[in-house]
Write a structure and sequence with these properties.
- With 324 residues, the protein is α/β, with parallel strands linked by helices.
- The chain has 13 helices and eight strands.
- Helices cover 44% and strands 11% of the residues.
- Strands 1, 2, 3, 4, 5, 6, 7 and 8 form an eight-stranded mixed beta sheet that branches.
- Helix 2 crosses helix 12, helix 3 packs across helix 4 and helix 5 packs across helix 7.
Length: 324
């Protein structure tokens, strides 16, 4: 005899599938018609992305032919594509604030991870309510950035595909921040670290694939006008001590990546200015390792508000014209 618990689980899964189909095929003509969604990483700053994706989901907005994400952007984009944005939302408000994910005390324990990515994958991606990989395969492709770190060679960005590659491994690889995650994430013949190392805002990949600027929406986790500073003396020392083996010489050079990041920002705001961008507001207070629940909740609300303003921007413009 089938238990009530099993019946409820089957019913819940069926209901989620119906909701996902409604999200995928619902008419979205009142909203901006885009094709590519690009999501910046940023650790706990990803709560802003989650707020935006929650607002999109609530309004059935899913026009995408492709999603590209780095680090936290890949996690959020994958959950959104699977019709399970609540997985990312709930994780930011519960599991990621428990102290099991970020362990600052391990900074003096070189054999222990500061970011416990194995726990994150087991708890969030493969947990009691796992990521629906079947549904994800039927959604638009999600490209997940990861940095392949070959010994004695410059690192390179690899774009793992949700339809072809192991999604749990890809999500672990893209979030493996150097030094905070000890060692590398191994997959096939690759040795991966943080996908945001070389391609933190991967809109250039969409342009390379032939999409037009007006077809792309970028969502960042840093405010408009933000520019990265050179790594501090102390951070450089930490990197140099941990990656002191000569075989990591090219990786060490790539870690001081502020110029490359700032160039991406310059182009996004000037050269590629036809790309739509949703930025966090100036008073966004979440940083990469924030563990303050109040700030996380505030950042989530700011994401929802920014999404609504963007979705209804044409209506807002029309109202302003009528008033003037």
């Amino acid at each position: 005899m089938i238990s009530i618990k099993t019946r409820f689980k089957d019913f819940k899964d069926s209901l989620e599938s119906i909701n996902w189909l409604m999200l995928k095929f619902k008419k979205v003509s009142p909203f901006p018609q885009k094709k590519v969604l690009v999501l910046e990483g940023g650790g706990m700053r990803g709560i802003f992305l989650t707020g935006v994706m929650q607002a999109f989901t609530d309004r059935g907005y899913f026009p995408w032919k492709l999603i590209i994400g780095s680090s936290a952007g890949a996690l959020t984009g994958t959950a959104y594509a699977a019709g399970q944005i609540h997985l990312a939302r709930d994780a930011f408000f519960t599991e990621l604030l428990t102290g099991n994910f970020i362990r600052i005390s391990n900074i003096v324990r070189p054999e222990q991870h500061i970011l416990n990515l194995d726990w994150m994958i087991d708890t969030i991606i493969k947990g009691d309510e796992p990521l629906n990989l079947r549904r994800l395969k039927n959604s638009c492709p999600v490209l997940i950035t990861a940095t392949h770190c070959r010994e004695n060679h410059p690192p390179e960005t690899i774009y793992l595909n949700s339809k072809e590659d192991s999604v749990p491994t890809a999500l672990k690889a893209t979030a493996a921040i150097p030094f905070l995650y000890r060692n590398f994430v191994k997959y096939k013949h690759y040795k991966f670290l943080d996908g945001a190392l070389l391609d933190p805002i991967p809109y250039k990949k969409a342009l390379e694939m032939g999409f037009k600027e007006k077809e792309i929406l970028v969502i960042t986790t840093r405010q408009k006008g933000y520019r990265k500073k050179e790594e501090s003396f102390w951070i450089k020392n930490l990197y140099e001590a941990y990656y002191k083996d000569p075989k990591h010489q090219f990786l060490l050079k790539a870690l001081n990546r502020f110029r490359q990041y700032n160039k991406l920002r310059d182009d996004l705001e000037r050269k590629n200015s036809k790309i739509d961008v949703i930025y966090p507001p100036k008073d966004f207070r979440v940083n990469r390792l924030t563990q303050d629940g109040e700030k996380i909740l505030e950042g989530f609300g700011q994401g929802i508000k920014a999404a609504k303003e963007w979705l209804f921007k044409d209506k807002i413009k029309k109202k302003k014209k009528k008033r003037s």
